[in-house]
Amino acid sequence: xxxxxxxxxxxxxxxxxxxxxxxxxxxLSLCGDQTMLQETMTRLEGIEELASPIVVCNEEHRFLVxxxxxxxGVEVDKIILEPTGRNTAPAICAAAEYIQSxxxxxxxxxxxxxxxxxxxxxxxxxxxxxxxxxxAAQGQLVTFGxxxxxxxxxxxxxxxxxxLNGPGIENAWKVDQFVEKPDQExxxxxxxxxEYYWNSGMFMFRSKVILQExxxxxxxxxxxxxxxxANGAQDMDFCRLESDSFIASPSNSIDYAVMEKTDKAVxxxxxxxxxxxxxxxxxxxxxxxxxxxxxxQGDVLNIDVRNSFVHADERMxxxxxxxxxxxVETADAVLVADKDRAQDxxxxxxxxxxxxxxxxxxxxxxxxxxxxxxxxxxxxRFKVKRIVVNPGAxxxxxxxxxxxxxxxxxxxxxxxxxxxxxxxxxxxQSNYIPLGTKHRLENPGVIPLEIIxxxxxxxxGEDDIVRFDDTYGRVE
Length: 476
Hints:
Shape: globular
Structural class: alpha/beta
Strand order of the largest sheet: 20-21-22-29-24-27
Radius of gyration: 24 Å
CATH class of the largest domain: Alpha Beta
Number of domains: 3
CATH architecture of the largest domain: Alpha-Beta Complex
Distance between the termini: 38 Å
Helix content: 10-25%
Number of strands: 30
CATH topology of the largest domain: Spore Coat Polysaccharide Biosynthesis Protein SpsA, Chain A
Number of helices: 11
Oligomer: single chain
């Protein structure tokens, strides 16, 4: 069997302001109708002997992952929750440990994929996975090297050594070395030689073999993660890794921890129109451009604009006489940049975080397991939200120390707990919740429930919530 392991722990900071820490790029629809995570899964359709996937993600993203998998009809084996990000080696180790603890099948092969790649040639992708399966089944550690189409300085490279021979093995090469992102002159040498591939960060190996190599080559990671899995807790579809043990693991990539040290590394060339969409310039490359070389998304009015990426999310954007630029508009932030400086967007996010700005973390519309909320107006003493509760969903039973709330139903039916009272409200009805009162909101209907919430008080932060009961396991 091939067991897909989807790594979904990235923050996508170079795609700010669309990508935010609490809703990063893998959960966004950037290159089609589906999100990048969903495309990663549906891209595997048609591969034979494919097991249910395992997704490794941040604790904060667990309900986004679960909902997006449900939306495309994919039943996950398990969603493994990292208490904090420790790079790819601990994430892969955790998935391999879980697989071994579950079935201890020596012939199962892990297919490790990032949740945020674009691969347009699905047939070529399937073909190289099939080839990689035969190599990995014989105990090798397979990585996929992207056949370069230019001298690129934004990727690490893999240099191939001698060809690998064996039954059922085709177009596979032993790895000579992994090299860091080169300067332009060196990248051109790599490209001209024909011996180098871009490092894709995709892998295939048997779970038992990768664990043996981790134990031998990066023992501190192996021991810490093994303990974190053994002491973890099963919660619905989730596997919560034990926090202290996982945090004790060194933070390292699988390249540094294993692939650069092992004698089992094998590279298979992949030529399938791959892109890791690491910046807005990459998104410009993978989307269809008009006759002027522009990618225009949303309500955009352009006059004499060329070779640019313009995205309008909430409002009309007018752009005049510009070339080689990026303009991205969202409800609470606008980015304007030279396309050649796309990698520097990460510095904007770093400055936002350093100054404590929420624009680095959240959009105005914030998704929760029960639905979403959007802040419409906020001052020091009051805040106005639009809250949408999905059919059958309910918020936690909670109270606030510093604020009172007033709810007005504008669509659907609300079942409300307020103190010792329980009642139903419909459109145009309202209810006041005094400070310090236990309350709960539920949608018993079959259409989304929408309410306007007015908060008043001395402190209106999202951390002023005391939960007493919660369907989604958020009670400490």
